[in-house]
Write a structure and sequence with these properties.
This protein folds into four domains: 398 residues, no CATH class; 116 residues, no CATH class; 93 residues, Multidrug efflux transporter AcrB pore domain (Alpha-Beta Plaits, 2-Layer Sandwich); 110 residues, no CATH class. Helix 14 runs antiparallel to helix 27, helix 17 packs across helix 26 and helix 27 packs parallel to helix 29. By secondary structure, it is of the alpha+beta class. Strand 5 and strand 6 form a beta hairpin. The radius of gyration is 35 Å and the shape is elongated. Strands 2, 3, 4, 5, 6 and 7 form a six-stranded antiparallel sheet that branches. Helices cover 64% and strands 8% of the residues. It is a multi-pass membrane protein. Keywords: Cell membrane, Membrane, Transmembrane, Transmembrane helix.
């Protein structure tokens, strides 16, 4: 059977060089123009993303609930807490006030607060007085309505407070509020705030807590859009560090505790940036040294490095143009292109420097074209399949690499043919040594022994360590807190005593229905936990209309005994009559003025208190959040949501870990799909024997990687499996180059170029394997092992012909 790849090669030889160059210009110009258009259309929304939450997939399938969860996360993930610590409370408060005064007007914050909102008693009491008849809690309203004794008990309790002098509010409105409902509702609000979970309490107008002999004063902030751009130099986190460093002094004994996702995102962003610089610098230096030493000429170095920079630049522009926000991890992974993109250049310049039989750069291009084309097709199929994965970071990685590799391929076949051949050729180091090594290993039994040994050892290792072979993801392992930030989170957890592990999202067709559904959930949750677990919820502050109606009915019943209550409080008969009429008139005038967001009568301090709980209208439905202070039993908590179609229980660490397991299985299915497509493609261009030989390499790669991971007790996580499918595309290049070289003269140069390209690629991915960031480390490690296996197997497969 005639090799169809040679026919394809002959076809492209007939394409004029000007057309190829035109294709190169069109491809790069198209991406640049697309990027500029996106820059204009999406102005201010294009940039680098370093948010840790965006690194993991979203775990909710229903679109509206997913958007509601995203809305909540957009707020809570931008929350920051700074605890100012000192043995002396007044000193801690003084420093906190200094920090607050410097940050309060910063554009990096949507809001920032030090002084407790409850301290603004005038606004609170005015609201509670105006709507006192709407805010009687349901349990108390039921007690009042159930019997006359219940109403009488409530009235007597109010008299006890009035005469006992234990009220929080002055008794200025006693004639119009004889049952002290304003006082009662204020106490309920304060209990709801206390029940929301933290151990912080109001002291001298600020939130503070004493722990282990030190006072901690809390500053709370929400990052603005500008301040949350953690990849920029002037962001909220760097400003907090700068201000606190100046405000705190060793002499005063003041220290700072930082808590919140943005601090960790900032640290991971800086760490990733440092790793990018290190990986890129080390890889580039190694590549430069290799090129200079091997080719003894600066021209291969200049053009190869230029090709790499163009490829990386085009990959960045294309990714930003399509996705608008590119995650910093995509950029870290993209630096691996330094090793991959140079493969095409190395194949060209090896022949350019040493192959005297080829008389022009165009002949060199024609000589290597079929191998390069098969390589870009095989790699492109693998990356293209990953574009269909329901995971944005994976889409970005695959698209980034695909755009860069196409650029590098076009540069090699369209631009390099214009490079003049050197006057002296055959001046490439290591080719003679490599030729001797290859000739010593060219016996069939050597190649077969190596290949069979790899298969057997891998299978035996998997059999021995089969208990370690498992697909399991743990979200918490993706980012390891270290150093000061780890100690800060431990201290903050001990001081604040607030460690939510999940939350409920409650939906409704209307605002009132959402509040009603949440009230139902609250009852069930309190029954489940016996009231031992605190929570924050919207309906604790803004009851549903049904509950407010019940409150009004209870208030109406209390009014029947208003004259007796006023008389017991010492008012004379005339005043009793006037006050009673005032109460009746107030009831009639306000009976339809329910407290609701829709009516616009929810005060700012309530909105602030429930800012993380009330999500409002999202895609035509209304959502609110019940946020427990801790999760004691995930299964029991989830069972409440499973029993109600309007309730969804979200536990990020558990849900996303489970979703990563599902995505890992999906990636394996993608691998099978790519495997089948690749075999069809290979069978079209090669004989059955050659196609089976090539397609057996990915299978061997999987065996070796799984065996190594099992031997070292490393789970096959999502990112390591992702690395496998990427190896599939990159690793096939080596065996394809070997196959394409079989019928060509001066056959040692192509295997030599393959060896050099393998070395450069393995250096890049080896650097990724050393990364401290778990996803990058796992991808780098699996690709490092897989590429080594691919090259070894392709080398010895080539010896068997």
């Amino acid at each position: 059977m005639k090799n169809r790849s040679l026919l394809l090669n002959n076809y492209f030889q007939n394409i004029s060089q000007k057309k190829l160059l035109g294709g190169w210009i069109f491809y790069h110009a198209l991406i640049v123009v697309f990027f500029l258009v996106s820059l204009i259309v999406f102005r201010g929304r294009i940039g680098i993303d370093s948010d840790l939450f965006n690194l993991v997939p979203k775990n909710i399938s229903m679109a509206s609930v997913k958007k509601a969860d995203d809305k909540m996360m957009s707020v809570t993930s931008q929350n920051v807490f700074v605890l100012v610590a000192n043995e002396d409370f007044l000193e801690a408060k003084k420093v906190a006030e200094n920090v607050y005064s410097q940050l309060k007007d910063s554009k990096n914050f949507e809001s920032i607060s030090l002084y407790n909102d409850v301290s603004a008693m005038g606004e609170i009491t005015d609201f509670l007085y105006q709507f006192r008849s709407f805010l009687i809690d349901e349990k108390t309203a039921d007690s009042i309505l159930a019997s006359d004794e219940g109403a009488q008990d409530f009235a007597i309790e109010a008299l006890s407070k009035a005469y006992g002098g234990f009220t929080m509010l002055p008794l200025d409105n006693l004639d119009s509020d004889p049952f002290l409902l304003t006082e009662y509702n204020l106490q309920n609000y304060l209990n709801a705030l206390q029940n929301s979970g933290t151990a912080m309490s109001v002291k001298d107008g600020v939130l503070a807590s004493s722990f282990d002999g030190r006072w901690y004063v809390m500053i709370r902030g929400v990052l603005s859009r500008r301040g949350s751009k953690l990849a920029s130099k002037d962001n909220a986190i760097t400003e907090i560090y700068r201000v606190c460093e100046k405000a705190g002094t060793a002499e005063s004994g003041t220290s700072f505790v930082y808590s919140g996702t943005p601090f960790h995102s900032h640290e991971s962003s800086n760490s990733a940036s440092r790793e990018i610089a290190i990986i890129a610098t080390v890889s580039m230096l190694v590549v430069i040294i290799l090129l200079i030493f091997i080719f003894r000429s600066v021209r291969p170095l200049i053009f190869s490095v230029g090709s790499i920079l163009v490829s990386l630049g085009i990959a960045v522009l294309a990714t930003l143009a399509v996705f608008h926000r590119m995650h910093v991890i995509t950029l870290v992974f993209g630096t691996s292109l330094i090793g991959s993109c140079i493969d095409y250049s190395l194949h060209f310049f090896t022949h350019w420097s040493a192959n005297k039989e080829l008389k022009s750069s165009i002949e060199i291009r024609n000589h290597i074209f079929s191998g390069l084309l098969m390589a870009i097709i095989s790699t492109g199929i693998c990356f293209a399949i990953l574009l269909f994965a329901p995971f944005m970071i994976l889409k970005q990685m695959s698209f980034f690499c695909l755009a860069g590799l196409i650029s590098s391929f076009l540069t090699t076949v369209a631009v390099y043919p214009y490079i003049k051949l050197p006057e002296q050729r055959g001046n490439v180091r290591f080719t003679n040594g490599f030729a001797k090594l290859a000739s010593n290993l060219e016996r069939k039994w050597v190649g077969r022994t190596v290949i069979i040994s790899l298969f057997v050892l891998s299978i035996l290792s998997i059999a021995v360590f089969h208990k370690n072979v498992k697909i399991k993801n743990n979200l918490l392992s993706l980012y390891d807190m270290k150093g000061r930030l780890l100690q800060n989170e431990i201290t903050a957890s001990q001081v604040i005593q607030y460690t939510p592990g999940g939350w409920y999202i409650v939906s409704g067709e209307t605002e009132d229905e959402a509040l009603k559904n949440e009230e139902k959930l609250r009852k069930e949750f309190e029954t489940l936990t016996d009231g031992s677990v605190g929570y924050i919820s919207t309906s604790s502050f803004i009851p549903s209309k049904e509950t407010q109606k019940k409150s009004r009915e209870a208030y109406k019943k209390l009014m029947k005994s208003a004259p007796e209550q006023l008389q017991a409080l010492g008012f004379d008969e005339v005043e009793n009559f006037d006050a009673y009429m005032s109460l009746a008139a107030d009831y009639e005038l306000t009976k339809n003025s329910y407290v609701s967001f829709e009516n616009g009568n929810v005060p700012a301090f309530v909105e602030s208190a429930i800012s993380s709980a009330w999500l409002g209208n999202v895609d035509g439905k209304y959502f609110t959040v019940l946020l427990p202070t801790k999760v004691t039993d995930y299964a029991a908590y989830r069972s409440l949501a499973d029993a109600d179609d309007n309730v969804y229980f979200i536990s990020k660490s558990q849900d996303i870990s489970a979703d990563l397991d599902s995505l890992t299985v999906m990636i394996l299915k993608f691998f099978i799909a790519a495997y089948i497509l690749m075999f069809i493609m290979l069978r079209f261009f090669y004989s059955w024997k050659q196609a089976f030989k090539i397609i057996s390499v990915p299978f061997l790669i999987i065996l070796v990687v799984v065996a190594c991971f099992a031997a070292f007790n490393i789970n096959m996580e999502f990112f390591s499996v992702t690395g496998l499918i990427l190896v599939f595309g990159l690793g096939l290049d080596y065996i394809i180059y070997m196959m394409e070289n079989e019928k060509k003269s001066n056959s040692i140069l192509e295997p030599f170029a393959t060896m050099v390209s393998f070395v450069t690629t393995i250096i890049s991915f080896g650097a990724l394997a050393l990364s401290s960031f778990k996803p990058v480390h796992l991808i780098g490690l699996s690709i490092f092992i897989g590429l080594a296996t691919a090259y070894i197997s392709s080398f010895f497969y080539g010896r068997q012909e």
